[in-house]
Batch of 4 targets.
Target 1
Amino acid sequence: MIGIGYRKDFAEEWYHQPELLNADFIEVAPENWMNVGGYWKKLLDEKLRYYPLFTHGLSLSIGSPDELDVEFLKKLKHFLNQTQAKFYSEHLSFAKCDNAHLYDLLPIPFTEDAVKHVSQKIKQIQDFLERPLVIEIVSYYSPLAAEMKEIEFINAVLSESNCLLLLDVNNVYVNSFNHRYDAKEFIQQLPKEKVAYIHMAGHLQIDDDLIIDTHGEPIIDPVYELFEFTLNWLQRPVPVLLERDFNIPEFQDLQKEINQLKYIFNKVLQKQKEYVA
């Protein structure tokens, strides 16, 4: 399954010409849609007649010191149930402090205290929503007071909270480039049974030693190669989403990226079937 991030930028055109884009599911940020009615809700509801829905949150801020926003969680739970969303994912980061939204996804310190804090919050969220939370490995540019390696921190949170993992292959590539580690070795240290689905996206290299995770550029060949490696490592098919948050290209260009992901996905799946046979 290869899906596409559903954006208002192209929602209207896709509604009137559904043949322009061939995907297997859609993903939305629930914050952008759960209070929407009228015309835009009509467009989303029409797509939900044909496509399963994945959701990828932006403002839960599981790493912040603030208490969980219960009113937000109530609205979120209603939206997830109403739309029959298959997954609810969020970022392993923090985005607000003292109820002030920072409008960015900031890294959490790689510490034992942070593991306990984040894991407790995830458990509360999962109990409230009555579904597993899928957390995403985020890109970051400077570690904060790290007491352990990034991979140790992520694995500790996954184990302690019993949540699932959204493996953003591009984020791993970006972090491995910026922080000088081997992306394949990093992925191989993750618990593959926890991977619920995969994100694929583009980035922008602005210097010889710095990549910015933009989600506004085409996927580059090394990230496709890491994607193929990841699928082989997983040894099972999982859904894959193409993210494009801004600088949205023409439908034909989006479809080319979807087709390339499908080609790699199907190639690996076929090889695995032949191996089993």
Target 2
Amino acid sequence: MTLTTAEIAKQLAGEVLGDANAPLTGFAMIDRAQAGDLTFAENAEYFAAAEASAATAIIAGKDATSTKKIVIRVANPRLAFAKALAIFFPEPKFVPGIHPSAVIATSAQIDPTAHIGPHCTIAERVKIGANVVLQSGNFIGDDSVIGAGANLFPNVTIYSRTQIGKRVRIHAGAVIGADGFGYVFDTSFHRKVPQVGHVIIGDDVEIGANTTVDRGALGATVIGKGTKIDNLVQVGHNVEIGEHSILCAQVGIAGSAKLGSYTVLAGQVGIAGHIKIGNKVTIGSKSGVMHNIPDGETWLGIPAQPDKQAKRMMIALQRLPDLFKKIAEWEKKLTGN
């Protein structure tokens, strides 16, 4: 692909400082950029390195100037970076049609624009929307609905009655709608509580590889539109996650917890069951959340606490060895030993 700097700038809502007709043939990070490449710098340090690189042009902020390189100046360099990657590395196109090895129930409804790849299984009364992609080895359970433009990567399993919105992306190995972890002790053994609910996933959700979203025991487990979930995340039964939230790798959310919109859970956060997390909440990595959190707060630690309180405790813990040493010295002076 070859585009001029002016053509790229137009798509990025930017302005060109330098040769607007210079051809750009690729996008590369600073340390690997070659002549013809566009690169990206979001601060002064990276911009200096980009000027010293072999790149032809640099995406940078509105105030950037250079006598060495062409600059595409934009309001938000990181956002422009994401858009530029999509220009130079477009998503693969999948041809509509059904692979001969796919197994499809006669009651299933599949839009003619959908792509059904090798070894997919589509069960009874499933509805597959326009431009859906099932890449290969996907299982879609009875009465499930896959919205228009959804893309399921290889070996994704969708249990029965799951509802998936438009433009959802689910990566390899994810399991949506498996039984929730529900048991009740009965005299001498753990009796399984039947999990008869389902999962609802809103539009524009992305779910990472090997993530699991359990079906509700009764009712639905819900993931709000625009939410992005990393790899290896566990979402328990009847959890409700609001819109446009971020769940990083290895997060675990126990049953019936409720998370607001625009909430961020950093890596390995654990959320106890039945608690409520407000809107625009941020929870730090490895935190264990055992209490409700109001809107807009940042919490850290095990057990998680408001960030200022948690930081004070961390500082106090760091001072404990010196404090113990002083106490030992005082004991020695008092006892004479």
Target 3
Amino acid sequence: MTTQKRVLAVIMGGGRGTRLHPLTLERCKPAVPLAGKYRLVDIPISNCLNSDINRMFLLTQFQTASLHRHVQNTYHFDPFGGGFVDILSAEQTEKTSDWYQGTADAVRRNLVHFRSFPHDIVLILSGDQLYRMDFRKIVKQHIDHGADVTIAAIPFPVSKVEGLGLMQVNDDLSIVRFVEKPKDPALIRGLALSPKLEATLTPMAEKRCLASMGIYVFNRAVLAESLDNTMTDFGREIIPGLLGKKKLFVHMFEGYWEDIGTVRAFFDANLALAQPLPPFNFFDSRAPIYTQDRYLPASKLNHCDINHVVIGDGSILTDSSLKHCVLGIRSYIGEGSVLEDTIVMGSDYYETPEQLAANEAKGRPHLGVGRGCRVKGAIIDKNTRIGDGCNLNAEGKADGVYANGAVIVRDGVLVVPKNAILAPGTVV
């Protein structure tokens, strides 16, 4: 059987996303906009498509409307290829009436849906990570090693592994031990890769450990057997529980990988894309990242000073200055505004002349950033209205709520939530 016929992919749609709040105030984590025109869920789906895997189940639960809309509008397959992205939301059944209790619980409840499709391997992915991986390599290794479970892992320097789930492996890549977020330096050094495995990686002065990426390859029967219990989480319960009982191997991945788990991680990963040589390359035509084709006009820039900026389609910038920024689709930046280290997610629609006149009569600002604004170190979420003359700066601000709740500082990043309205002259 080919990879396409052999493998089913299961993409976890994420929990409440509390660490990404307020970006997850009205959407789940995989639906958060990324890099001007994408959504986080486009990453695992594109990786699957580029790996000849075209049968995907997306398991969703919280704030799913925008995610469902995006997937349904984006991923269309011809009827002869057998491909699909099937959305499976948490549902009440005769056996259960509550929400998914964790990643393993979500997969367990949907095994009945997977059985309708021929497969013998299940690839389990996160919906909120930024990376590019050819899954054919991990599937091939899984088959070649006769593994029951294969876990993708990334080598991290021992000085930077705090807060990560680590694995100790033999030279044949079989897994010996799991340690969840160790803090003891001596323990961490004991988990370091052997000289033989280090020699297979790009040279580095510091020793490295293997951190789980939350990407799993299961044999179909092993997955069903491992879920025949009440355990709720793969990383904390299912995988450690299989150690010594099944053949567990690790697949070492060298490349850029970022778990978009916090506002700061999201902010840094996005702004890094504006660098001349970004760590994640959206311009790699060999493995493109797909997203919705919106048929927007080209962006229009009038007398602007632009320095290291990503600009989404259909944006309008006038007499403004931008340095190290990422602008989403339909972004609007008014005259005389200055933005630095800022993400503007743009808008879902353009205002008609009638709407503009009605909003002006009510004193509501234009969609986007108004005239004469100063913004630094911020995330301006979708469909926001920043009035003229606003001054928003995250420097020196403690995490908390500002401007009567219209602005939130989280992880040192100033966030204007989706659909928020800032009155002209607001200063934070």
Target 4
Amino acid sequence: MMKALWSAASGMISQQTNVDTISNNLANVNTTGFKNDKAEFKTLLYQTIQSKTTSANGATKPVGAQVGLGTRLAAITTDFGQGPAIASESETAFAINGDGFFAVRGGDGNTYYTRNGDFKWSMGTAGVTLSTSDGLPVLDSNGKAIVIPSNVATSKVTFTTSTGEVGYLGDDGNYVSLNQTIGTWQFNNPAGLEKTSSSRYIVTDASGPAMNEASTRGLTKSTIMHKYLEASNVQVADEMVNLIVAQRAYEMNSKAIQAADDMMGQANSLKR
């Protein structure tokens, strides 16, 4: 069996994954807080056809002869570069400028992290709670849900720009602080986070533990932009170019399979 068949087949499988990754990037170009993914590849094992000492007299040759056996997917890495900030009319819209992540409490009790700051007010068991569009409560810098008093209307709630401090205007017009600040967390290796749906991430051993910006020393704190949302960092022009390259690579691998098939057909016809 010709090695070219399997090598080219591995290339087609890898490029299919590449196209899938690019397609997902393009599909989420308008998803708030989405981060661009990139497929990376590595070579498979090499087969030694001729070593450096295969001459009849055992003389050392300067180079040998090895044939690669194809490629495979090595990783799909996420680019956590800053996305553009887009102005929003929502009073509960927030964008992070920096390396931080918002934290939300999932229905399973676990903490998830996200860059999507398109929050809403929802009626929870504890009262009116700042939450995601899926109803998951947003956590403050102490890891607690942000709940406003029952006698305070959501229209009275205010947020301090850059710090995310939560308060409200009393009946007398004076500002009253809730002593809560929208929490932000960082990671030593954000690329190691495990992705879930709705642009949320889970902590893994590869990412390292979440570091609270409010209590961890040495971190460059992020700023929170009120009434802004962070758009995805997908560059459509770059993704279209990558899509064309991936498609051409897929076609070339398919042509290699066709060439190998033609060569095997000609070899089989020699005995006729």
